[in-house]
Amino acid sequence: xxxxxxxxxxxxxxxxxxxxxxxxxxxxxxxxxxxxxxxxxxxxxxxxxxxxxxxxxxxxxxxxxxxxxxxxxxxxxxxxxxxxxxxxxxxxxxxxxxxxxxxxxxxxxxxxxxxxxxxxxxxxxxxxxxxxxxxxxxxxxxxxxxxxxxxxxxxxxxxxxxxxxxxxxxxxxxxxxxxxxxxxxxxxxxxxxxxxxxxxx
Length: 201
Description:
By secondary structure, the protein is mainly α. The protein has one domain (about 1-200). It has helices spanning about 1-10, 15-25, 35-45, 55-80, 85-105, 115-125, 130-155, 155-165, 165-200. The longest helix has about 35 residues, at about 165-200.
């Protein structure tokens, strides 16, 4: 298994691997808590001279994935959104938009997993928040989040690389991989059911 995870993280060193992972993380299907954060830290640790560029790539990928989710939400509208987001969460998001606007909703991206931020992106599209304001704020919050991680990786890169080669990280990697697979399956099933319910109306 160690070779498997070394191969995975080796692929993430490339710009396209990190970009794709970040884009999928912002989609409605894939459930990958902390995957992008770990990937940013790993890539920044292994490429100290480029520690600042990987957070930008991750942020760009996240925005691309979020744009697709946002567009789906726009197509669903307020009525269709109820099939994909719980009433309690939808009420919270709606109240936050009314009180503080699109900026406050995008800033929720700074809340660490397992906060369901993808639902916020979907709701933002359905509730027709300001597109420029929402995405500019979202991009800035993601850059802030990932750049902080990149700087820490740049400073403590050697220690992080040593930790990545330890058995402890191997067990953590296996656990996160299992969570990703199980979470993605559950999310996919829920999405299929919600889509059928939406079409049935």
